[in-house]
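Morning run. Coffee first, then this:
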Amino acid sequence: MFICQTTCASLPHSGVDADMTAIRRRLEKIKHKILILSGKGGVGKSTFAAQLAFGLSARGMDVGLLDVDICGPSAPVLFGKEGHEVHRSNSGWSPVYVSDNLAVMSVGFLLNNSDDAVIWRGPRKSGLIKQFLKDTEWGPMDFLIVDTPPGTSDEHLSMVQYMKDTGVDGALIITTPQEVAMADVRKELNFCSKVGIPILGVVENMSGLSLPFGSDLVSFSSGADGSDITGAVRDVLAAHFMPAAPRNDANKNYLFPRLNIHVDVFPATRGGAAFMCEQAGANFLGRIPLDPSIAWASEHGRSLFHTQSETSATDANDEVNFSPTMTAVNMILSQTIELLETHNRCPQV
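And here it is:
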């Protein structure tokens, strides 16, 4: 791992004037800077951050993603860049490019072995975050997305301190519907309020399981012995929904092009994120379901915004571009862009 030990060993406040100036200069050509936050781990924050970056780049924007989860970096896997290295020169560090308009920086690119544990105390983590901000050569960009670890600890305080003069647009908060997650997410909302980070909105992730009815992942059973009656159930529904359709076992979604199954895996027992936003006065941006197409894309470092043939190896995603998942993701993406444009049109007080 090639990391400046002098920088990493320093406390966050040492050399602040020179470092803050260097950070501001590095980021001054980036139009929008968004933090991805969640008080709870395991809510899909890094997955959302990666697909947000893919989605913005698919719309022709120049995007960078900075992964500051020092102990659990996910970006190399989520972008399909495991084993890639960061190149350094006298002018700084070059991020790893996923495409011509999508660049990524992560501590995962600095490890000699991806299975190595990063066992660092707070000051050293803060030093590396400062070095990422100060030395990474992003160049002119439309968006910098910062994927943070869960909680409200050293990394978050360092990001706020180091980026306070760079014009952070705000934070997107990720949660899941159940109260055990939202209890910690409320703390994140409180954190943003205390440190002066605007909350762009809240996304409820894993909001039910969504599957195309014809997916190979869907089966039906009956009786104590669990007899498989999947074919019989599909035949009955096909007769009612598309009686004139020819049988096509190779592509069962041909029979059910818009029929989806939805299951509330994590019930919103206390109103979910929408109610939390109503109580907190925050924007509720929408719900993203659990969807095997998201899991497949994440495991293979692919974008949901590519064509179906590129993003799927199973029938489960044959209608990915028209699925409830893609409808939700595109709506959240559009709302985020609209919020940023509105913010830029408002006069600064």
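The longest strand covers residues 199-212. Good start to the day.
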